[in-house]
Design a protein that fits this description.
Order of helices and strands: EHHEEEEHEHHEHEHEEHEEHEHE
Number of helices: 10
Structural class: alpha+beta
Helix content: 25-40%
Shape: elongated
Number of strands: 14
Strand content: 25-35%
Length: 339
């Protein structure tokens, strides 16, 4: 008999077992996730609600799990009230009727959101900036390519009245494949502009501080030489996974070394003043960022960037700088009535 229940304190080994069973069949998923990582990054968080993490069982046999949480600070989404976030379910590959299990997990998550006055649900896949827990457990892997175009899971959500919100493209650049651009425009930019690197140590927003607790973030701003008084003419934000620098904490856990390699960074959208576009400023800024990364990391380092399909300018920039599209997926949403 299929049963769904919320998380208990003795469940981490069960969650780990399901994850690693799935990871054996999906090359892009991390195989070797540990209870220590789960406890540190998810279950031990002050914002983790055990009632929002659901596990499916057939009698006593664990089948899969689904994690859901609530965000109160995503005003750009199609609701001004609380937003329920549903993360991709992980189902053991040995389960015969996976669609039934997934639907049952989603329904339990919807009941949870209705009780907590969430009026809009968002299905999350990829690595959108700032979604809690996601970047550690899912953000550097592609479990199932889960909401990729034509995936079975996408069809399940659509059959449950979820709607397309946005298509997201995820890009990756392996720095050992990168060749620094050389052009007259970039040379002139180097003569007339300078890049300032500013560590982002704190934020006034508690939610943002929590979401980025595992990142070391830096702002990169371009200013005219000898004039730093005004606003920058271009800028970008780079996020480095802090957990990747926590090897000492898990030094006796060999599987963790596999979990954290290779070093990865997440590049937020590069912005350049409209009247200065096509002057090489964006390329100058990005080259400066890459040089800084290579000074402190190996050439096997990877930079990721996630952007909307509609952001044609950013996509063209990424492709021009040797990024490759590795995944295209959808954000889905659904409105519900609070109970």
């Amino acid at each position: 008999m299929l049963t769904i229940r919320s998380f208990n304190n003795n469940d981490p080994p069960t969650v780990l077992k399901i994850w690693n069973e799935k990871a054996k069949s999906i090359a892009e998923m991390y195989f070797g996730l540990t209870i220590e990582i789960l406890e540190e990054q998810l279950f031990g968080s002050i914002l983790f609600d055990p009632k929002s993490f659901f596990l499916a069982f057939e009698d006593e046999k664990p089948l899969g799990f689904l994690h859901a949480t609530i965000s109160y600070n995503l005003n750009e989404l199609p609701a001004n009230n609380h937003i329920g976030l549903i993360f991709p379910p992980v189902i053991s590959p040995s389960v015969p009727n996976q669609e039934l299990v997934i639907q049952s997990l989603i329904k339990e998550a919807e009941k949870y959101f209705a009780k907590h006055n969430a009026t809009c649900l968002l299905v999350v896949n990829g690595a959108p900036d700032g979604f809690p827990f996601y970047d550690i457990l899912y953000g550097q892997s592609n479990p199932n390519g889960i909401l990729a175009n034509k995936s079975p899971l996408l069809s399940i959500f659509l059959s449950m009245q979820y709607k397309f919100l946005q298509e997201i493209k995820r890009f990756e650049l392996k720095l050992d494949d990168y060749v620094m651009p050389v052009s007259e425009k970039i040379h002139l930019t180097n003569q007339n502009y300078v890049v300032h690197r500013i560590p982002v140590w704190s934020t006034d927003n508690f939610w943002d501080a929590f979401c980025y607790r595992n990142f070391f973030s830096t702002e990169w701003n371009v200013f005219p030489k000898n004039d730093y008084s005004g606003r920058p003419v271009a800028g970008a934000v780079l996020h480095e996974m802090m957990s990747q620098r926590s090897v000492a904490f898990f030094k006796n856990n060999l599987s963790f070394k596999r979990f954290i390699q290779p070093q990865r960074f997440l590049l937020s959208n590069i912005a350049v003043e409209n009247n200065l576009l096509r002057n090489g400023i964006g390329s100058f800024l990005f080259s400066t960022v890459v040089r800084d990364i290579l000074e402190n990391n190996s050439s096997s380092t990877i930079i990721e960037s996630v952007t909307s399909q509609d952001n044609e300018r950013m996509i063209a920039f990424l492709l021009r700088h040797s990024f490759k599209e590795i995944l295209s997926f959808h954000l889905l949403w659904k409105t519900i009535t609070p109970s």
